[in-house]
Input
Amino acid sequence: MSPYRHSTETHRALVQIGSWLRETGYAMVAPTPETHRRVNARPDNATARDVRGVFGWSRPFEPSLLPEGIVHLLHEAAAVDAAGTLLQSRVRFATLAGELFVHSAYPTLDEDSVFFGPDTSRFASFVSRAIEVLERTARRDRPRSARLVDIGCGSGAGGLLAARQLGSSIDEIVLSDVNQKALAYSAVNAELAGLSATCIESDVLAGVVGAFDLVLANPPYLVDDAARAYRHGGASHGTDLSLRIARESLERLAPGGTLLLYTGAPIVDGTDVFRARVEPLVAEHQYTFRYLELDPDVFGEELDRPAYDTVERIAAIGLVAQRPTRSHGEETP
Output
């Protein structure tokens, strides 16, 4: 596998901006796009009045609002646009679980946008709770070091927060994505978190080798008319990509390894479409299996679209699948 190589200048500049924001006590919870739109539409929010307005709300700003050195770094990172006499950042920074993450500016309309929002927070909470359970029930003979991969890592939040929680038991962090901008931002976020991670360009697990002790994924699960990679989950109401990730991940789990998959599940006539597809797949492997409905109703605005004309709601779910430490039928020594 070949690590993604990004611009040294861009990386250094974004790390310096993030470090400065942390030193100033910056904090920003990334809202949904609809909330973002509504808040920015208020007359008083036409332009940024503070640093959060610049780096959290993506509002145009007077250059004098920021230190001259930070404006220079934005230009150095090619992360700023002119908006008349004003400037507008092409990146946002969000805080989650004590860490700082760079991601794409609002609105995330480009094919290579790196999204960060409430789904990221739900994913991180699901992973954190699942790891707590795994840690309590872990065997004493588990490996002292382990490999972690975050598939479709985006900002890298899932993998980096999981690695932070697991501490020294994680020997290798792999952040994979088909989006090169996501890999560049993940590398920045890893440095901001003080963690060493390998960022790999990979279509699911095609570009990485070997087995993993922990596989994480928060894939796109909506039907996007433009088929943008950061948002489009494919056919079957957006479940195709999640099913593919489950299939490939289950085959690459090391003995005792775990898959933590957060995704959306369209409900049609009371039936969970994704569960009906993924449960037989896990059963084939004879792995232990938990399926959690984390939020019964997300992205309700999507139901107005033709792609969802038979869907009554979209649930956010968490799948926990664990490979036994020993193969089926293997006797304990």
In short: The chain has two domains: 8-104, 118-322. Residues 118-322 form a domain with the Rossmann fold fold (CATH 3.40.50.150).
